[in-house]
Structure formats: structure tokens, C-alpha cells
Write a structure and sequence with these properties.
This protein is α+β, with helices and mostly antiparallel strands. It has helices at about 5-10, 70-75, 80-90, and strands spanning about 15-20, 30-35, 50-60, 100-110.
Length: about 120
Amino acid sequence: ISFMLTTNQIHNQTKTVTRRLGWWFLKPGDILNACEKCQGLKKGEKINRICQIRVVETSAEFLFDTSQKDCVKEGFPDLTPDEFIAMFMKEMRCGRYVVVNRIEFEYSRRPNNGKL
């Protein structure tokens, strides 16, 4: 799963929630490789895995229901919910009434020497 926009938050382990327009198949206990970028790689580029995460919970929620507490969990403690929502809408090209997949996760393990 790509964290291109929040790579630093994953490295610092300050992010424990992500919102996605997909990934509806996830269930608690699923292990994912957190990567910097997974799609749109140029010729010769490789996936850079950061760490592994374990899905704790998923839920369908309206984007406009994002709380201040979740801004912190998303890795943006300095943003208000309205600022976070505006950023998400711009990056994902969607509206505030979209239903998103709220994925809560925990850090499973760090790679050894860059290998997972």
C-alpha cells in the first residue's frame, strides 16, 4: 500500500490511520507492505518498502466526518479537519461527501537492511 504523500509519517510511525477510496477487501489482521510508491514507477524504478503494517479495523465513513483526533492519527496534527478534507479532496480528486475506507493499522515490524 502506497504512502507517497505521507512517507515521513510512516517512517516516524506517527500515522496509524489512512483513508482510501478503495481497499474494501481488507480485514483486521491483514499484513501489508507500506511503500513509498507502488504505481506509476518509471523504467528502472523499484518499489521502496518502508515497513509492514497490520490492519486493526476498517470502516466506511463519509470524508466530511473526519475528526481532529483522526487528523492526528493521519499524521497531520497541525491540520484542522476542514484543512485535511480539502487536502484529501485535492489529492484524490473527489468531493467531501465521498465514502472513504478508514483503515486503522499498527506497525508490525521494521525491515532489516531494507529487506522485508
